[in-house]
Design a protein that fits this description.
With 490 residues, the protein is of the alpha/beta class. The protein has helices at 3-18, 21-26, 42-55, 68-75, 79-92, 145-158, 173-187, 202-211, 227-235, 281-294, 351-358, 367-378, 381-407, 431-440, 473-486, and strands at residues 95-98, 102-105, 131-132, 196-199, 219-222, 240-243, 245-246, 249-250, 264-267, 297-301, 325-330, 342-345, 412-414, 421-425, 443-444, 446-447, 463-467. It contains 15 helices and 17 strands. Strand 1 and strand 2 form a beta hairpin.
Length: 490
């Protein structure tokens, strides 16, 4: 007889005694103390209850289970349902069934207990950070929500139907056109929309260029930079060779004498990260001349070129030789890292290899965000936002400088003419202890040594890298007070 008919007959017979299925499912097995769930199928509820009973030790190995007819009557289930559940648990190894012995819980070896490890006296934990003075993150509260929403609505209304299909890996033409105009006007970049490839940020660009096989190492880099980028390059099999640094930026004159066969160099010429300061004009020219003579490339990371306070704008190195300089930018510092949009301005011969590495369809950068950013740029909203944030960050920078002058005049802030962070020069041998003191003051920040290339040979100068963009306005004063308490005495 089919199970459905059996269930119907059993339900009918139990109607006067147990009522509905919901009531029957709540009944407790007389011997096994099984509680069945009200939801889901009856069979699944029984399987779950039996597994839990065995797993939890309520049904010990060797325990004999009641005949399926008895258990079915106790729980108000069809006999076929219980018989099928027993059979499945036997097949899974939870139960055993032998002629004349009935159905029992399977014998299993007890799990080995892990060896006892003597407990150490717990170290007193440092307090959780109350103030975030790490570099690299803009003020999240300043994202231009209303203006962004206006651009999003306008862009969606104007978008052609094909914009909602598979994305072009090169990026929307609307965004590439707006970027070409903006970068030429604001950063001195010489390009056209056909030489721009949209990506999801600087790290994504590095993955495409080196992980995708477009470029190969070794790669010359500045002696101080983000360890995350070095790790990313290392994962792609790229060896990085450090260049020395001084107050004029990377010593690009050393490129010609580097050993190891590097044919590309990665620079932050507008504002060296993290030490600060622009690359000297003579060294900009030296880098381009080296790339021309070697048939190589300069990779220009323009990570915060829009934010300048006490100096004239410094245009992109790319304008000196668009065929030898690969320009990389994003909105991570100017708008928000959450937007996940960046761009590569490529020498013409690299466009197709990069698109090949990227694939036939856009898989990273949202087309809707691309359309919104295109409108945000073309409407002038981006320029207005940059001007507003430049003033806001300058006030924060000035408050940091004033606090140091008042509370720690022996500490020199450097790299403060631009960007979103400053480097505080410390007395020799005090960096590690100052970072620890800052932690105990509830401050999250980094020492300068955290950004040093492991193979750098230039002498290290102790310092703190202090980001002044991240803390909210209402907490910034308290963060500066805590920072000054952590600094070594004069």
């Amino acid at each position: 007889m089919p199970e459905s008919q059996v269930n119907s007959q059993v339900d009918s017979q139990l109607g006067s005694r147990a009522g509905s299925w919901a009531e029957a499912a709540e009944r407790i097995g007389a011997d096994l103390h099984l509680e069945l769930s009200r939801t889901g199928s009856r069979r699944a509820a029984l399987l779950t209850a039996l597994r839990d009973a065995v797993r939890g030790g309520r049904l010990a190995p060797g325990t004999r289970l009641p005949p399926y007819r008895s258990l079915a009557a106790d729980l108000g289930l069809a006999r076929n349902t219980v018989a099928d559940a027993y059979a499945e648990l036997v097949a899974e190894g939870w139960l055993t069934a032998r002629q004349g012995s009935g159905t029992r819980v399977a014998e299993r070896a007890a799990p080995a207990k892990p060896p006892r490890v003597p407990k150490k006296s717990p170290a007193l934990p440092a307090p959780a950070p109350r103030h975030d003075l790490r570099q690299g993150t803009p003020d999240a509260s300043s994202f231009p929500r209303a203006a962004w929403l206006t651009s999003a609505r306008r862009a969606l209304n104007a978008a052609p139907n094909e914009a909602f299909g598979p994305g072009d890996p090169q990026g929307r033409i609307e965004l590439r056109t707006a970027l070409a105009a903006y970068l030429a006007r604001a950063r001195g970049v010489y390009t056209d929309p056909e030489r721009i490839v949209v990506c999801s940020g600087f790290a994504h660009a590095l993955r495409l260029l080196f992980g995708g096989g477009v470029l190969r190492g070794p790669l010359a880099v500045e002696s101080y930079g983000l360890g995350f980028h070095r790790s990313l390059l290392q994962a792609a099999g790229v060896r990085t060779v450090p260049l020395g640094l001084d107050e004029d930026g990377a010593r690009t004159e050393e490129l010609a004498s580097l050993t190891g066969g590097a044919r590309a160099v990665l620079l932050t010429p507008a504002h060296q990260f993290p030490t600060g300061g622009p690359l000297h004009p003579a060294r900009r020219a030296a880098a381009v001349d080296w790339a021309r003579g070697r048939g190589g490339l300069v990779l220009e990371d323009d990570y915060d070129g829009e934010f300048r306070y006490d100096r004239e704008p410094v245009g992109a190195v790319q304008g000196l030789d668009p065929a030898r300089v690969l320009y990389l930018g994003s909105v991570s510092k100017s708008l928000s890292p959450a937007v996940r949009l960046g761009w590569m301005v490529l020498p013409e011969h690299l466009v197709e290899p990069v698109l090949t590495a990227k694939g036939e369809r856009e898989a990273w950068a949202s087309v809707l965000d691309q359309l919104t950013l295109a409108d945000f740029l073309a409407s002038g909203a981006y320029d207005r936002h940059i001007r507003h944030m430049r003033q806001r960050y300058r006030r924060r920078r000035d408050r940091l400088v004033a606090a140091l002058a008042d509370r720690a005049p022996h500490i020199e802030p450097t790299g403060i003419a631009a960007g979103l962070h400053a480097v505080l020069r410390l007395p020799p041998g005090t960096e590690a202890s100052t970072v620890k003191a800052a932690t105990w003051q509830g401050i999250a920040l980094d020492g300068l040594a955290a950004f040093r290339h492991p193979s750098a040979t230039m002498p290290h100068r102790d310092g703190l890298v202090v980001g002044y963009a991240t803390p909210p306005d209402h907490a910034y004063g308290a963060a500066l007070e805590a920072l000054c308490r952590a600094l070594p005495p004069g």
